[in-house]
Amino acid sequence: MKFTYTGIRVRNMDASIRFYTQVMGMKLVLRERMEATGGEFAHLKSPASAQRLELNWYPETSPYCTPYSEGAELDHLAFWVRDVDSTLRDLKGKGAQAAVEPFSETGYRLAFVKDPDGIWIELIGRERRRRP
Amino acid sequence: MKFTYTGIRVRNMDASIRFYTQVMGMKLVLRERMEATGGEFAHLKSPASAQRLELNWYPETSPYCTPYSEGAELDHLAFWVRDVDSTLRDLKGKGAQAAVEPFSETGYRLAFVKDPDGIWIELIGRERRRRP
Predict the structure, then answer these.
(1) Dihedral angle at the C-alpha atoms of A124, A13, B108, A76, nearest 10 degrees?
(2) How do residues B57-74 score in pLDDT, each as one tens digit?
(3) Cα separations (Å) of A89 from A92, B4, B12, B100?
(4) Of A97, A99, A123, B110, which residue is most buried, by most CB within 10 angstroms?
(5) Are A120 and A112 in contact (CB under 8 A)?
(6) What is the reported pTM?
(7) Does B105 contact chain A (CB < 8 Å)?
(8) Chain A residues within 8 A of B83 when measuring between CB atoms
(9) Are the Cβ atoms of A72 and B72 closer than 8 angstroms?
């Protein structure tokens, strides 16, 4: 038994695939219809990581198509980056909305952006020493 | 930039670590205090997978300790298994609560259990031909 992916729910599959590929740099691995629900799912991965993200979309006729509400279970999706500050600037330039501006903690640098459904995405990297 | 883990929020760190290690067979990679929030986080992985799960716990004094509500963003966490039916029986024997009993779809066998906070966990494997 092995943990293989995290499935999040999205409201607009095209918009979410666009965000995770064009803004977050992931590759689309597969996109298929769900027989049981009439919905669609897609798998994405970063080129340098085996970690997989699944996007799930349900049509309005599906019993899974409950109101899209914010909850507490999903804390965040984390992306490792070399330079948090410059990556955040780059993502903002591509249309991502910042949730938390960069800050430092115990040797790490962190910042947060939001995906198209408001899911928090953490940018984390080692603290970089700035020249004085 | 690469996707490195999914962070879920938990209400009881010890209970969740017990569930993900003793029931779901994951290994505890690290458990540390969060400087910024006064909380705690832990990383887990399955022995045969690089996929990481982060558990986050916040004390009542933390601004992140909002009411623990069910939301729509996190659809499920998926675990690949060899035999869905026998694994489900095994997990139930270890105290896991079934959310959806096993069913078949396009060559796959699926079932769902719940973690201690009610997060849906998918068991997925190839459909196994039963002897007539």
Answers:
(1) 20
(2) 999 998 889 999 999 999
(3) 5, 20, 36, 43
(4) A123
(5) yes
(6) 0.91
(7) yes
(8) none
(9) no
Asked if the Cβ–Cβ distance from B72 to A71 is below 8 Å, we say: yes
* Domain presence at residue A66: no
∠ CA A121-A13-A10, rounded to 5°: 50
For strands A27-33 and A2-9, give the pairing.
unpaired
Residue A17 covered by a domain:
yes
* Calpha distance B30→B48 (Å, rounded): 17
Tokens 């769902």 appear where?
B112
**First CA to last CA distance, chain B:** 50
Q: Choose the closest CB to B73 out of A24, A117, A123.
A: A117
- ipTM computed for the complex: 0.89
Tokens of B91: 């997990």
Contacts of B25 in chain A (CB under 8 A): 1
Contact B26, B46 (CB under 8 A): yes
Chain A hits for B46, Cβ within 8 Å:
1-3
Domain housing B86: 77-126
Cα separation, B70 vs B67, whole angstroms: 10
Task: CATH number of the domain at A31, please.
Answer: 3.10.180.10
Q: Do A49 and B3 touch (CB under 8 A)?
A: yes
| Structure confidence by residue, pLDDT tens digits, A29-66 | 999 998 878 899 999 999 999 899 999 999 999 888 99
What total number of domains does chain A contain?
A: 2
